[in-house]
C-alpha cells in the first residue's frame, strides 16, 4: 500500500476540510498542554505555518505522547475541526498518531527558541527546519522557477554549459583546478613542470567561472539563450557577498546592443522580484518582520529607511537610474565621504575600480534606487567587452542594488575580430586556446550582448538576509566545505 497519503498543510489551510478526516505528516515544532490535552505544532515544509494537532490522552496513549518531542517526525490522522484558538482556522483532532522518527530531546540541536545565525550555519544540515530557513528556501525556489518562466515566455532557450572547462572566461585567474593526478607524485615534463598531458583530460582543466563563452556560441545559433548553473571562483574574499560556489544566470542574445541588454536586464529583475512577491506572500511577510527586527538592532547610521517589502515594491515600481562610469566618478569625487576621507579607498582619478563602499554610496545615499552603471574603463573589465569609440571605455554594465552592491555584470560583446584579438594579445589571453570562441567572429558575426545575475545575491535582496551564506543550503567559502 502506498504510504504517501497525506494532506499538505499548505493545501489544508487553503481549502476548507472541516468535518472531514485526513492525515498529515511533518516535524514537531512544539508540544504544550497539560494532563488533559496536548497541542502539537507540526510543520511539513509546504508553508511557514504550523498546523495544530490536538491529542486527547484518552485517545492517544501516554507512551506515544512521550515520544512526541521537538524535532520528531509524526503522522497524525483525525478530524479537521474549526479551531478554538486564534492564529488558524482549523486544527486536527487526532484519532491516531504514529511517531515516524523520534528526536532525542537532549541531543536535538534546534530548540524552540531563537538561535544565532552562526549556530545555525554550523548546523546547516538541520537549519532548513527553522522558520527563517524554510522561508528562504521556498523563496529561493520561487525565484529559480521565475527565471525559467521569464525566459521560456520570451522564447529563450536554456543551455547547459560545461562545469569542467579548460578556459578562464573572466581571465581573472580565480579558477579551481580539476585533476586526477597523484599530487604526491605527479608526472613531470623534461623541464620539471607537471605534465598535464598525462592528466584525465590530457590538458589542464578547471571548474568554470562563467558559462558565458559557451553561451555566446549558442547565441550565435539559437539567437536568444540563457544558462543557469553553478559557477566557481577561488577568490579569497571573506565577505557577506562572496561564495566560492554560486549560481549564475547568464542570458546571451544575438542582435542586442548595450541598450537592449540594459532593458532586458531591468525587465527581468523586476519580473522575478514581482513573481516572488506574488507567490511567497506568507514567507515574505515573515522575512519582512525578521528584517525589521534585525534593522532595529543596528546602529542608526546603518539602518535602512525602507522595510523589506517596501524595498521590493520600490524596485519593481521605479525605473533604474542609468549613468556612465565617468559620471559616477564625478559624483563620487565630490561626495561627502570622499572629501572627508570616510571611504577606505579615496576616489581621486578616472580609471579607479569601484569598491562596494562606492557602489553602495551611489545606490543607497545618492540615487536611492537601483543603478545601471555603464561604459567602464577597459582596463578594469574583461577582454570580451565591446570597445567604445573613445578608445578608453567598453560597453559594460553593472547593476547595483541597495544593500547588495553589484548584482549583475554584463556587456555588449566585441564582435570585431581584429579589435577582439588585439585586446586578447594585450591582456595575455591565448588566441590559440580560444580558437573556438574566435570562430563566432570569423563566421557570421553580429552585434550581441549578455549579462550574468548572481543568483544568491538576488535571493539575498529578496529575502533581506544579511549574509550570502544564509541563502544557499550548503555554502562553500574559504576554509568551509562542510556537509
Ligand atoms: O561580474 P561577473 O564576474 O560577470 C561574469 O561572470 C560575466 N561572464 C557575466 C556575463 O556577462 N555573462 O559576475 C556576474 C555576477 C556578479 O554581478 C555577481 O552578482 C555574481 O555574479 N558574483 C558572485 N556571487 C557570489 N559570489 C561570488 N564570488 C561572485 N562573483 C560574482
Ligand atoms: Mg562583475
TrEMBL record:
Q: Does the keyword Calcium apply?
A: no
Q: Which family does it belong to?
A: Belongs to the class-II aminoacyl-tRNA synthetase family.
Localisation = Cytoplasm
Q: What is this protein called?
A: Asparagine--tRNA ligase
Q: Which reaction does it catalyse?
A: tRNA(Asn) + L-asparagine + ATP = L-asparaginyl-tRNA(Asn) + AMP + diphosphate + H(+)
Q: Does the keyword Isomerase apply?
A: no
Q: Which residues form a coiled coil?
A: none
Domain named Aminoacyl-transfer RNA synthetases class-II family profile is located at 137-475
List the PROSITE patterns hit by this protein, alphabetically.
Answer: AA_TRNA_LIGASE_II (PS50862)
What quaternary structure, including any partners, is listed in this protein's UniProt entry? Answer: Homodimer.
Class of enzymatic activity (EC top level) = ligase
Question: Record's PANTHER family?
Answer: ASPARAGINE--TRNA LIGASE, MITOCHONDRIAL-RELATED, ASPARTYL/LYSYL-TRNA SYNTHETASE
Keywords of the record, alphabetical order, are:
Aminoacyl-tRNA synthetase, ATP-binding, Cytoplasm, Ligase, Nucleotide-binding, Protein biosynthesis
Q: What GO cellular component entries does it have?
A: cytoplasm
InterPro entries for the chain: Aa-tRNA-synt_II, aa-tRNA-synth_II, aa-tRNA-synth_II/BPL/LPL, Asn-tRNA-ligase, Asp/Asn-tRNA-synth_IIb, NA-bd_OB-fold, NA-bd_OB_tRNA
Record GO biological process: asparaginyl-tRNA aminoacylation
The primary location reported for this protein is: cytoplasm
List, in alphabetical order, the Gene Ontology terms for molecular function in this entry.
asparagine-tRNA ligase activity; ATP binding; nucleic acid binding
Pfam families assigned to the protein according to its UniProt record, in alphabetical order: tRNA-synt_2, tRNA_anti-codon
EC numbers, comma separated: 6.1.1.22
